[in-house]
Automatic annotation (TrEMBL):
SUPFAM superfamilies associated with the record: AhpD-like
Stated name of the protein: Carboxymuconolactone decarboxylase family protein
Carboxymuconolactone decarboxylase-like domain sequence ranges: 16-98
Coiled-coil ranges per UniProt: none
Organism whose genome encodes this protein: Bradyrhizobium frederickii
NCBIfam families in UniProt: ahpD_dom (TIGR00778)
Length: 159
């Protein structure tokens, strides 16, 4: 088991201006009106790809609090095979994966699918959400931030 090199709270103290900038970028998509559940699915998927345990746990817990169906949380890693996701969610997840795994760029097919489901403005803000979670993932994975524990009341309810 690896241990943290630094913690999330340390980031706020050591580089508060960077922390505030990344935090602000991450909030823009929601402020622009994109569905918060959709944003959380995208952030969760990118965090899975990037192997950031802190961010995966953070976005699972946040998703649960805002009412993302548990089945979607369990199936987001295999969203292509799970019929539970809407066309809009599928387009957003494909977009997130393409932007997270950039060596191949964004294919015309993925762009066309995203452009069918999102306005130009929405696609820009969705891109900002993907960009922000990828930045968070770089910090979380680099410093091995410790994932948050599930709140005690939620643990009791899950039993």
């Amino acid at each position: 088991m690896s241990h943290a090199r630094s913690e999330y709270e340390d980031f706020k103290t050591i580089a508060p201006d960077v922390f505030d900038a990344v935090l602000a970028l991450g909030q823009l998509a929601g402020k622009a009106g994109l569905d918060k559940q959709l944003i959380e699915l995208v952030k969760l998927r990118a965090s899975q790809i990037n192997g950031c345990a802190f961010c995966v746990q953070h976005h699972v817990l946040l998703s649960e609090r805002i009412g993302v169906p548990v089945d979607k949380l369990h199936l987001v890693a295999v969203w292509r095979e799970a019929p539970i996701f809407s066309p809009r969610e599928r387009a957003a997840l494909a977009w997130a994966e393409a932007l997270t795994l950039l060596p191949d760029g964004v294919s015309e097919e993925v762009y066309a699918e995203a452009a069918r489901e999102f306005s130009e403005s929405e696609l820009m803000y969705l891109t900002s959400a993907v960009a922000s979670i990828n930045v968070w993932n770089r910090f979380g994975a680099a410093f091995r931030w410790t994932p948050a524990s599930r709140p005690a009341a939620a643990n009791a309810a899950a039993s």
